Amino acid sequence: MKTRLGGERSFRRFALITLGIMTILSLLPVILIVIASFTDENSLIANGYSYFPAKWSLDAYFYMVKQVKLITRAYGISFFVTITGTLLSVLFTTTLAYPMSRKDFKFSKILTFLVFFTMLFNGGVVPSYMMWSQFFHLKNTIWALILPSVFSVWNMFLLRTYFSAISPSLYEAAILDGANYFQIFWRITVPLSKTTLLTVGMMYALAFWNDWWNALMFINSKDLFPLQYYLYNILSNVNAVSSGRIPAGASGIQLPAETVKMAVTMITIGPIIFLYPFVQKYFVNGIMTGAVKE
């Protein structure tokens, strides 16, 4: 018994040390980005990226401050798109995954085939653009940033797998008590699936927050630019100036191209870095549960 306990303690120490080292290695690139964003542009070009720069500078953030109104608006657009899109996505995904998980639903196999078919084949970029812009008339509207990405087949199958693992006896007991299908879904399935729902919600939130493709495709108005696409435009302008395609004097200042890229990265990932630690537990548990249970 003592030998067994000693072995478990040794393994735990080894696991903690290994995880600690991996955590530090994972944080090092983020720390380097933060330091690089505060590094002088000329020093960065001359000496390269370093954890101990020769000269510090706030030029990148001064440049970003001049864009603060547009960045703030872009933040608002991204928050609205992320929150609204996540709620709608979870709603649509769960309402499709639930009936497909029920063995007594006679169209389950047909629906599964049709949904899975879309994972293998799709219409392509041009038909999708024509459908959303000309048929649904979403071009230059806030919904163009939400509806094209509102459903994920992968997330639907993840939820369906978890829903299928719920004991059918719970559903049978609810039916005997007079519950209808909506009541069973809302009072039994959803409460038992909170961890997986949070996981799927986190996946959707990350996808909406990081999305810039829909804005590139459907949005021309700067008032509707989400954060990712607006920062993408900033980087494009900085790259154009640094490559000489646009004269630096045209903007009135000498742009710190490399350090601006680092500052843009920090502005982009900041909210996710602060949010993820609070949902990490549910994220990991949901992935494991939805993937293993059948």
DSSP strand content:
under 5%
Counting H and I runs of at least 4 residues, what is the number of helices?
A: 13
- Which residue ranges are poorly predicted, with pLDDT under 50 across at least 5 consecutive positions? 248-253, 290-294
Please tell me the overall pLDDT.
Answer: 81
- Helix-strand topology string: HHHHHHHHHHHHH
Number of strands: 0
Q: Report the C-alpha radius of gyration, rounded.
A: 25 Å
Give the termini separation.
Answer: 36 Å
Shape: flat
Largest sheet: none
Helix % is over 70%
Structural class: mainly alpha
Short synopsis of the structure:
This protein has 13 helices and no strands.
Task: Give a topology summary.
Blueprint: H1 2-37, H2 41-47, H3 59-65, H4 68-101, H5 108-120, H6 125-135, H7 153-164, H8 168-176, H9 181-192, H10 194-210, H11 213-218, H12 227-243, H13 257-292
Helix pairs in contact: 1-13, 3-13, 4-7, 4-10, 4-12, 7-10, 7-13, 10-13, 12-13
